[in-house]
Each structure stands twice: as structure tokens, then as C-alpha cells.
Amino acid sequence: MEYIRVTKENLEKEHICCAISNNKDVQVSSKKAWLSDRFDEGLVFLKSAERGKCFIEYIPAENAWVPIDADGYMYIDCLWVSGSFKGHGYSSDLLNACIEDSKEKGKKGLCILGASRKMPFLSDPKFLKYKGFEVCDEADNKIQLWYLPFEKDEDKPRFRECARHPHIEESGYVLYYTSQCPFNAKYVPVLEQTAKENDIPFHAIHIMSRQEAQSTPTPITNYALFHDGEYVTNEQMNDKKFLKLASS
Q1: Among 56, 82, 77, which Cα is nearest to 3's?
Q2: pTM of the full predicted structure?
Q3: Cα distance between residue 9 and residue 14, in whole Å
Q4: Coil, helix or strand for 163?
């Protein structure tokens, strides 16, 4: 498999989404704008030559858009291998490239969000265990922080207190999201319109900076839906899913 590192120089021509092949799509352009601003902060986006079928995205944890304390670590935003490409070792290739790069940059290790069981848009815990990752912290909503230290006795990354007990005071449906996931550019407006048409209390909070992301009341910031103060899901909603949820 041939791998390509996406940079500011080739960003416009490269495909960077797992499901959207049209580079002109508003969802892709919003993600690319977000990526472009992160490259100067140390973000690395390594992908297969195939269109968005395999990729890894990682950044120094100090600059990650998640509420964690993990100084000296590298944080993996996303490690993705599309269905037909699974089972060929590509995820190991990408992870190994991240490990090698992180060691060269003097990092203590890697960290990534996960859970005790496989959940949408989170890394498979079986894969993480197989690769030597361990759980180093867990929030009340069962979202876990996993880490892979390069040396023994390294300080463990941890969630910030604001994310450890996901809860907000606002009633109704409240969605925290970033432009990190390309699907949000399309589906957040869909939810806003659906909620309006059906008189469902809904408030979308677009996280626009690292500082905001690092103080968000949930470990997951790219998409986190609350209802009447309680965390519900990180799974992207279309209109049908949202209405089904709201009627349950």
C-alpha cells in the first residue's frame, strides 16, 4: 500500500474523507479548512493512495481538541480503515508510522479515545489491546482514554475534570460539535431544521477553538449530543434518527 502525507501544499487535491469522494462537497471543504489550521500545530494526516480508504490523523496532545491532560504525548484523532481494506495490516502500518514519528519527535507515547466495547466512531478496544494500549482514565459516560507509553512509569494521561462527569444544566437537546468531522457541515443544519419543524428544543454549539474544545463537558468534542443535561451519544444523526430518538 502506498501512503501519502497530506500537507498544506497538497491538501486541496487529496481526498481526506472516509465516505465522501467529491472534493467540492461542503463537508470536505469544511474539514480541509479545519485541517489547514492544524498543520502548523503539529497535526499529521497520513492516508493511503486510495481515496480516503485508510488514514491516521494525530497531533501533539497539548494541541488536541479534547479535554485531556497528556503533556508530552501524541493524541490520535482518528485511525480509519474502510471495510474492504480491513484485514490486510493497513491499520498496523499507519499506527506503526505514527509510533515511529512520535518517537522521533521525543514523545512519551500515544493516547486515543475508546470504550470498553466497540462504539461508533471510536477505536475498537480489541485492536487497541492487541497493540499494547491500556485504559488510563474513564468518564462517567463510559468513554475511555487509552494510552501506549514508550517507556515504563510515564505519567498517565487523564481527562480534565470538566469532561470526567459529562453533564450540562441546559434542558432540551444540546449538541457540541467541531468541524473536525466533515459530516457535521451537512448534518448539523439538518438537525437544526428538523428540530425547528417539529418544535423540539435544540441548541447546537459549534466549538471553534482548541481552548473551547479543551474545556468542553464531554470527552468527545467532534460530536456529542446531550438531552436534558445528560450525555446521549456521539453518533451522527440524520433527520430520521433524530426524530426516532426524540420520540423514544
Answers
A1: 56
A2: 0.94
A3: 10
A4: helix
User: Which residues, 6 or more positions from 116, have their beta carbon under 8 angstroms from its beta carbon?
Assistant: 125, 135, 142, 144
Q: Which residues contact 87 (CB under 8 A, 6 or more apart)?
A: none
- Distance between CA 73 and CA 70 in Å, rounded? 6
Query: For 200-223, how does the pLDDT look when each residue is reduced to its tens digit (9 = 90+)?
Result: 999 999 999 999 999 999 999 999
**Residue among 212, 214, 219, 247 at smallest CA distance from 233:** 219
User: What is the rounded CA–CA span in Å between residue 124 and residue 135?
Assistant: 13
pLDDT bracket for residue 21 (50, 70, 90):
low
CB-based contact 154:109 (threshold 8 Å): yes
The CA distances from residue 24 to 11, 14, 19, 78, 113, in Å, are 13, 11, 14, 22, 30
* Calculated CA dihedral for residues 70, 71, 72, 77, nearest 10 degrees: 50
